[in-house]
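Hi all, posting the design record for the shared folder.

TITLE: backbone redesign
STEP: 1 of 1
STRUCTURE INPUT:
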């Protein structure tokens, strides 16, 4: 039995099953403009159906919870932003209290990066609520952009005490908390008593969640891409060539649960 089929069987066979997914590169295509990310057509309906059958269907992203709410507000689907530091509830966005003390540092780093990089064509500084990211996918000369960005990122780390999270043509600065997608997924599993879990991701920031899922006896669902990081491509589990192929798997899961 292949890994993708095994994940479907595990989720359909257990009454307390959970499916947790990243957003960018998983449920949406990677875009040159990060603000242009959106769900693939038809995904919203599939997830809404799965949310009525699985104990937990959730998005767990490095994006702010507000970003997810604007693009993936789906009945029954839980939204966790900023690597789990934010959770969208019926009362609004709840922020982990530990994050409050680092808001000033993140704001200062964000302002500094805007001052240094906003006038460079193709470089985009993304305000991420509890983090800040620098994207250079749209820059014609990516090597030169990397050399320009790298020392600035290191300066922000040294000056403000933030943590570095590399990605696909993006450098992210996060709060130095013991919180990542792995700890967030562990919390979802334990608080909801999930007995079978699958996590879908595509980048280095998803690796702690892959590890947490497999440690819980669950399944890693990896969406590959031409520029996927080598360590992510080696994750044991089900691999998909694109968000479209993963969407087809979601439909198969939905059909199996009927």
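Okay, here is what came back for every position:
SEQUENCE:
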């Amino acid at each position: 039995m292949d890994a993708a089929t095994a994940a479907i069987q595990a989720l359909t066979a257990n009454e307390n099953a959970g499916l947790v997914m990243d957003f960018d590169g998983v449920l949406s295509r990677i875009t040159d403009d990060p603000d242009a990310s959106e769900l693939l057509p038809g995904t919203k309906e599939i997830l809404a159906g799965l949310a009525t059958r699985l104990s937990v269907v959730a998005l767990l992203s490095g994006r702010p919870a507000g970003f997810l709410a604007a693009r993936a507000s789906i009945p029954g689907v839980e939204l966790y932003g900023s690597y789990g530091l934010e959770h969208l509830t019926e009362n609004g966005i709840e922020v982990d209290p530990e994050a409050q003390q680092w808001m000033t540092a993140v704001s200062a780093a964000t302002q500094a990066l805007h001052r240094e990089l906003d006038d460079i064509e193709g470089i985009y500084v993304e305000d991420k609520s509890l983090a800040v990211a620098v994207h250079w996918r749209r820059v014609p000369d990516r090597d030169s952009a990397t050399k320009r960005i790298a020392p600035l990122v290191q300066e922000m780390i040294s000056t403000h005490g933030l943590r570095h999270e590399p990605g696909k043509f993006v450098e992210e600065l996060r709060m130095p908390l013991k919180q990542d997608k792995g700890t967030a997924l562990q919390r979802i599993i334990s608080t909801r008593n999930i007995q079978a879990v699958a996590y879908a991701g595509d980048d280095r920031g998803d690796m702690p969640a892959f590890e947490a899922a497999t440690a819980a006896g669950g399944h890693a669902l990896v969406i590959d891409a031409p520029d996927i990081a080598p360590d992510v491509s080696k994750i044991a589990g089900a691999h998909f060539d694109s968000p479209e192929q993963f969407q087809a798997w979601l439909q198969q899961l939905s059909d199996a649960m009927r």
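COMMENT: The first helix runs from residue 3 to 13.
Let me know if anyone wants the other runs.
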